[in-house]
Amino acid sequence: MEQPRLLFCFLREHRMKAVETRILELRAELDEHNYRYHVLDEPSIPDVEYDRLFHELKALEAENPHLVTPDSPTQRVGSAALSAFTQVRHEMPMLSLGNAFEENDMLEFDRRVTEGLDLPAGDLFGAGSKVQYSCEPKLDGLAVSLLYRDGALVRGATRGDGTTGEDISVNVRTVRNIPLKLKGKGWPDVLEVRGEVFMSKAGFERLNASQLEIGGKTFANPRNAAAGSLRQLDSKITANRPLEFCCYGLGQTSAEIADTHIGVLETLKKWGMPVSHELKLANGVEECLDYYRDIGERRLTLSYEIDGVVFKVNNLAAQRELGFRAREPRWAIAHKFPAMEELTELLDVEFQVGRTGAVTPVARLKPVKVAGVMVANATLHNMDEVARLGLMIGDTVIIRRAGDVIPQVVQVVAERRPENARAVQVPQTCPVCGSHVERTQLIKRSKGKETVTEGAVYRCVGRLACGAQLKQAIIHYVSRRAMDIEGLGDKTIEQLVDEKLIGSPADLYKLKYEQIIDLEGFAEISSNKLLKAIAD
């Protein structure tokens, strides 16, 4: 009997070693794929293969819970909810940066740096008497501190007031591109990495869409979404939010890892830390301004939101020489972009009529400059959005402009509501043609069954008798998606309808030369050209 028992023990031990080896292999493989995907932007396997490896590891750990370690990729899913965050004191304060808003502010910053370093000192910077600066986008997110001991992530904390933050360790572990264990070797025993947790524009849109589906809270902008997601007491919620991390420097460390700021970031990247793809070195303040202009032009095309550019003296010895003033470093500055959001007053809500007769609200605002453009109108989408915002005429509101999107009202500042604020009322008759406006409950069909969803659309019943619907119908008819009639623009169509020369798309083919040449902006050649385009 002894021999079979020994054989059984041997086989069991052999199997356990095989399982342990496979678990280590899977963790290493998943860590490598995470690094290639999140840091290098060079994924080497499709998502489906990554998922297969992840689920294999998850199953093995479920069968062998004693082999689960805190740095396993499976531990990003979140844990039990906390009752409150504990306070964390930063060994090295997380200071804010001074701001530059104009080019002259940057020139003044460079002058202070130059004087503080008693330049020329070409041998120090390798660029004559010009200071070398690192340049990187200022991500619009939440600043965090990540503490690693012996290469393992042991704590995550918010910036807080710069001296004391909140321990969000369980939450930062769920952020996919934060390494739970550093790659490679050579890292200090104690390494504090600092950076920004943010949400991409696409991730923000997905999150708000999913929140609307479940009737949850939506967010005004990606920054609020990132901050709200990272500070959830239930880390399982955080784990399901599309958060990302980008490191921008160091805090407390037990040893120096480079002699320049860019050298530090390049080393951190080798250890698995995501750094900005836009990181560059500038020789002198003029190159800093060139960088600012270049990224400013590309700002709206980036996949994430930025609110400026951070410039830092690249040489770390020079940083130490310059030191700090009050609560900000003398060797760094944030050159801010014009704000994408602004406060203004809602003067009125007017209603416009679309091609299908939908009557939609438009905010008329006290004019304000947003991202360099004067804004007086903003979309409100529909009355459901008005209700969601709790919007009243006279309110102080936050408006947002991003990309080519029409400015939109994203939030009401309820505490500033005046006593004479008025509710927004849908007109009973069409503001264009006077026809009746009817309310239609939105219907969602699912698997052959009709289910009424929350929300409704208001429509003018006038159809083509309504000038607004007629104009939009003809604009659609002549567009590239339909008949593609070149030279027949929106303004021309508006003139034709207003002059009662056309009452339907078919009337376009009845137009005469004498009618067109009398229109504003038309002469003999352009009139004949338009008639030919319609005929063709």
TrEMBL record:
DNA ligase that catalyzes the formation of phosphodiester linkages between 5'-phosphoryl and 3'-hydroxyl groups in double-stranded DNA using NAD as a coenzyme and as the energy source for the reaction. It is essential for DNA replication and repair of damaged DNA. SMART domains: LIGANc (SM00532). The lineage of its organism: Bacteria, Pseudomonadati, Pseudomonadota, Gammaproteobacteria, Pseudomonadales. This is DNA ligase. Residues 18-482 form the NAD-dependent DNA ligase N-terminal domain. PROSITE patterns: DNA_LIGASE_N1, DNA_LIGASE_N2. It comes from Pseudomonas savastanoi pv. phaseolicola (Pseudomonas syringae pv. phaseolicola). Keywords: DNA damage, DNA repair, DNA replication, Ligase, Magnesium, Metal-binding, NAD, Zinc. It is an enzyme of class 6 (ligase).
